[in-house]
């Protein structure tokens, strides 16, 4: 099977072919760091981290770039409200961003360039567009001459006239045409600014991504990604800027995630119907949030509610329980159960499940169906464990397959959550309890049992040792 990616540019699933063999250049539009991100914003983060994981699993070396917009109107306003400087606001929320997304098991980008650290390149890019006649200065601002770019509208599949009527652009006397967009914005008195050949000011939003993708990944990249609301105008404008400058295709594959909805509406800052990731993480296991996000194919809408989060928690628990039971059986299995009949049939079934999982992920990263294969794996593992005699080879294969699926999706099968105790810590405490009992120190043994009970860990003493599970 070859990997198929739905490309917004062609509106078709296409076979993925990177520019360079074995390498992927991927750019994901990152957050504007003026406050905590909401759960809707967490969707592209989790989805494209999973895309990256799967590409890595398929043997690609992924160069993953995602920017931080660390200066714009919202940051300037936030700085005033919080009585901080703009860089202080950016640092605060970049710190908060990493704290939160680390918990979601999101891998660090290869680079997270900040706009303010790449101002020379941005100014150079704008100057080159002016030289080529694609941009013009006006009253201290610089605008992109949209109509001059013949392919404008190719990503949104709309003729330029329709876009012009649909766009909620404010009338601006400084523009030649209302569809022209800002590349450089003149600073108002007292605002943070950078010096440039066009005067003191700061860059517009779209130009940063064109500049940073070019700087860190080259003129043409493989995958450019973000939420569906970025198709127009953000990505359309990025294409115009980049392609009119370099003369090359900007990105070969454009991927866009669908919206996360709450009560049937898109979660967004402007509607005020948002829950910050920071707050949700106080209540919900990060693993559950990640699993929930992957329970729907990334292009489809996903609905956040107590019920859908609950379903995710239950589904994840099924997988975690299968994993725990398997691990326990492996630790306690008896020697004479090693060589058994039907071993090859079971191993064959496992190979088929792995192929099924890969085929689903190859089909435009269909994590929803891949999770169905994951459940099937857990179910078969439970059936296998219900037998009296088991083969260690098959057990190990089940375990490694569960781990493999979990790693691709970025899910943890070791349960931590409620008790706050890691599996290894629990094992250590159980070992200590056993030792205490051997030394007839029953007081200490009971103390450990009570401590674990308090943490919701239930112990079960069996002929093969002490087994535990989370209550
Ligand atoms: P913003 O802060 O609005 O620029 O959004 C940052 C990222 O989150 C972009 O890729 C958006 O497309 C994406 N995004 C914003 N709201 C939602 C939502 N409700 N569901 C899915 N993605 C979203
Ligand atoms: Zn962007």
UniProtKB/TrEMBL annotation:
Q: How is the cofactor bound?
A: Binds 1 zinc ion per subunit.
Occurrences of domain Cysteinyl-tRNA synthetase class Ia DALR (ranges):
356-420
One of its GO biological process terms is: cysteinyl-tRNA aminoacylation
EC top class, as a word: ligase
- From the UniProt record, list the coiled-coil ranges: 309-367
Q: Which InterPro entries match?
A: Cys-tRNA-ligase (IPR015803), Cys-tRNA-synt_Ia_DALR (IPR015273), Cys-tRNA/MSH_ligase (IPR024909), Rossmann-like_a/b/a_fold (IPR014729), tRNA-synt_1_cat_dom (IPR032678), tRNAsynth_Ia_anticodon-bd (IPR009080)
Intervals of motif 'HIGH' region: 31-41
Which positions carry the signal peptide feature in this UniProt record? none
Kindly state the positions of the motif 'KMSKS' region in this protein. Answer: 266-270
EC numbers for this chain: 6.1.1.16
Per its Swiss-Prot or TrEMBL entry, what cofactor is needed? Zn(2+)
Which amino acid positions bind ATP, per UniProt?
Answer: 269
- Identify the GO cellular component terms for this protein: cytosol
What are the UniProt keywords, alphabetically?
Aminoacyl-tRNA synthetase, ATP-binding, Coiled coil, Cytoplasm, Ligase, Metal-binding, Nucleotide-binding, Protein biosynthesis, Zinc
Q: Tell me, in one coarse class, where this protein mainly resides.
A: cytoplasm
Q: Name one GO molecular function term.
A: ATP binding
Record-linked SUPFAM superfamilies: Anticodon-binding domain of a subclass of class I aminoacyl-tRNA synthetases, Nucleotidylyl transferase
Compartments reported by the entry: Cytoplasm
Q: Name one Pfam family in it.
A: DALR_2
Q: Give the catalytic activity.
A: tRNA(Cys) + L-cysteine + ATP = L-cysteinyl-tRNA(Cys) + AMP + diphosphate
Q: Per UniProt, where does Zn(2+) bind?
A: 29, 209, 234, 238
Q: Which family does it belong to?
A: Belongs to the class-I aminoacyl-tRNA synthetase family.
Subunit info here reads:
Monomer.
Its name, as the record gives it, is Cysteine--tRNA ligase
What are the top taxonomic ranks of the organism? Bacteria, Bacillati, Bacillota, Bacilli, Bacillales
